[in-house]
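Protocol step 6 of 9: fold each sequence in the batch and record its structure tokens directly after the sequence line. For illustration, a two-sequence batch is reproduced in full.

Sequence one:
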Amino acid sequence: MEGRLRILLLSALCMPCLWSAAALAAEDSTDQVAEQQVAEQQVIQPQIDRREVGIDEIDSEDFEVSVFGGLFSAEDFGTNAVIGARVAYHVTEGIFFEATYGRSTTTETSYERLSGGAPLLTDEERILSYYNVSLGYNLLPGETFVSRNWAFRSALYVIGGAGSTTFAGDDRFTINFGVGYRFLATDWLAIHLDMRDHVFDIDLLGDNKTVHNLETTAGLSIFF
């Protein structure tokens, strides 16, 4: 009986302490929740209106076919119109192979016009045509912004190769090199601007010499 009384007395003495501890724990928890809510309210939540920019990329296919036109400056035979076609295969994002065929009709030389003698070439021999196979490298691939909301893929590339030029009744080994700019209007359509030099030897006017024939063209191409 005496033992039970002791237990009751101890319980009565400890109960206030337990209640106080529980109250303090509840108060601490409430304070932590309040502090967290205040901190969350103080954090700045920026409202950013992000604009979407659609960028056209080269189609998943690697072949490119293009037609072009421009001016071909045949040394000693004037600057005349040129037309042609190209087929390219893109090996990687930076490297591509290209086969080209072009055709132009040259005019009389200053010697022919001033001498008043017989023409040096027949009408058929004045037709200049060439073909070549070249290796190109996209030197500066990037993006061109037409407006704030429109961006297009573009690339500045260098190219060089070898082939043959048929002119003045003979086929002449030709080296070509130059630079170009490709602008992708859509994922399958591109615009090209090219400047190239076609170098070959010719002995038509007496002395065998190396001539440089500058070509400037613009064209359209499709990817498939």
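Sequence two, same batch, same settings:
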Amino acid sequence: MKKKHPEHVNLERWLVSYADFMTLLFAFFVVMYAISQADMTKFKKVAASIKVAFASAGPAGMIDLSGSSGGATVQQFEEFQAPGGRMQNMPAGKTHTAADPDPELQEIRELLEESITLEFGVSDISEKMHMQFDSRGLVVRLAAKDFFEPGQSVVVPDLRPALDRIGRVLSRSKRLVRVEGHTDPGEPIAGYASGWELSTARASWVAKYFLQRFDLDPRRVGVAGYSHYRPLSEKKDAWSRARNRRIEIIVLNNQYDSP
């Protein structure tokens, strides 16, 4: 009887398991790569959409007077909390919000920015004037502490060229315009009986100045005085009180329909 040889043991069986593992690992990385490519495509689409949205806000080189002051400097009209809606943080009252402005109002704002900053420079005029859109239209806010002497209703001569720039742009439009005056309880009123008279007198002076110097139909222009009853801030510190003393020139959403 022949002697039976011992069965040969295959010592390379581990290669089969190793090959299976490598195949699964390769498949895993293929799937991961495919997922990453899909995410990158979506990311590129989102980035392109954001770029288009910012580009539609205006020319890249346009100086924006509604921006914050930055650094350690605080502008008089700068808000610390972002309000809702389309308010752009000018601000023009705590309750006024609106959708995006129509193209004509946007063009008026850009013309005002370009015209005024060319003459005065953004660092100087941005502390004296601010612009924003709200539910009424385009609001141009002038700081009374700069444009008027305390208790007076006549704009100081040095800043009348700013009114000239504003009036020249307004004369090219057919929009209704309202000039509003606002005071502060602590502001001296000189010879006026109350803040009502002072705020109305300041608004009237600005409106008359526009009518006398530019081809504006008086039927397009309205005047209002609110004394201290529509403050921008309820705080009693000197900065907040100075911020409440202002003139607002509002280019309304409504067109003037001549008879």
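Proceed to step 7 once all outputs are recorded. Observation for sequence two: The chain has two domains: 10-56, 61-255.
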